[in-house]
From TrEMBL:
The chain crosses the membrane at residues 443-462. This is VWA domain-containing protein. SUPFAM superfamilies: vWA-like (SSF53300). Keywords: Membrane, Transmembrane, Transmembrane helix. Gene3D superfamilies: von Willebrand factor, type A domain (3.40.50.410).
Amino acid sequence: MGIKLYLNVLFLFLIVGLSAEAQVKERRIYILDGTKSMMGYNGAEDVWERVKSLLNQNITNIDEGKSDIILVVFADKIYEKVKGKQEILKFLKSFKPEYVTPTNITIGWKEIENLVDPSKFNFITFLTDGEHNDNSALDLPSVINDADRYLGENNAFACFVRLTPKAIDPKSSKILESAKNISFIDGIKFPSLIRPSISKLTVNLREPISFNQKLFFEKFNDLDFPENFSIGIDFINNSDSFKVNNPTVLLTKADGIIPIDLEFSGSISPVASTEIINSKIELRSLTPNVILISNEVEIEFINKPEKLAQITINPDFGILSNYPSFLFWSNKTDTVFQTVSVDWSEDAKLSNSSLNLNLKLDGLKDSEYGLVVDGYPQTSKEIEFLSSENAKEIGFFINERMQSGIMSGIIQVSKIDLDRTNVDEPLTFEIKLNTNFNPLKVTMFWVGVIILGFLLFWFLILRNQIYKKFHKASIQITDPYFKSFRVGGCRKMIFSSYPIKQNSLSTIFKGRLHNEVNPIWVTPLTFLPGKNKTDLIKVVRNQEFTLDPYSIFLKRYGEYNIKDKSRKIIKIKIS
């Protein structure tokens, strides 16, 4: 059981290791001069600290998940060989070039053959501060010439960095200038590197929609590019029937993928027997410190009808608004639309060709979003284009609540019944998501705000104007019975022989009512707040009672006799 478990674990680690290895597409190799002249020995220029800083910065920026990294130190022979990003950075912290030996540059070039992996793209950076001075070594120009040929045959490219003027050898310079797979640069710096993203272009001379081609370049390292840099294009053509129209291109975009348009002119007779002409273009950097890796691109000119389709779409779908469910009001999402256009070649139309487009939103399951084509909801995320159709309006809506932000998606060509399309990679698009509040929630919120505002206005301002309150006062009934009470804060006072009820809403919205109950008050007598603190209480006229001394307002500290029709006297005192 233990052996079986061990084998399973070993197999798992092997699979993981192979998977990680399969993802690595590049190999970066650094060949470093380790002679003591790098530190100023024997009158040489001390360049080590600057070179060390440059190496640290360059290696730190490499994604080890995509690239192997190897550092080799040479002098008269190979002295050090370090693999792995962290191991190299750790090595550089303590290493000093202190080998007092001749500089055998040939040994560094020959070592490349032991390091290159043809299954990956290999980029070699060769750094030295002096010329080759080991008389026992091989002839340097011959070695560089052999290395150039080896690199071209094994998916590799090298840059020879001549750190000081002493590293410039006239004989070797001639070889380097004519080399196809080795570039060179002078000074303590690394070049900005770009390369074509494809090695072959196909141009159909009989199909205008494919006559103009885009050639894409991609940055190979993270160094800053000049704001503008130029590329020269040499068209190596086996026929004089057509030519490239733009032999020099100025590029201004320094980030990401850089496209340029290649425009071809000329023609070949449609009845010519030649159906395919193979040619190529050679690319040259016309800007110092910008180096082209892989400076050749093959071109295949096709001189026959083909079934072609050119697919175009605006990648910006706009803003998609949605809101969540609330109570009985269910969630809803808008639909955003864009038009997908397909331009078919005549041969594709005659052959009744078709293609399918598969559309997908990143990070969402198929059940979480829907697709609409020409106004009709679809059950599938794949739509079919017939050669008789040139455009469809496609739309997306989302079934689930999403956070605001940007969502990306892809369009892939599938089930293709064509020779070629203009879509080599999936088309990408973006949808801006805007999550709103549920309309019912918004309505209830604003109704609540309005009601709350009205209540605040009523209780703080309006109620006090309509239903005034008594100032603080004390009332004493001294005869024929004794009773003392305060009426401050009340809006009305009623003397009656029976209780007068006031409901809760009236108490809240109008104010409190004070009711003095005694059988002597046969007819209710009502009092309201006076006009100021002196005239405290206003007597509401009542034919059943008279006031002595007569007054409409009862004043503070006043004493009054209230007489009813039967001449009963009730004495009250205000304080």
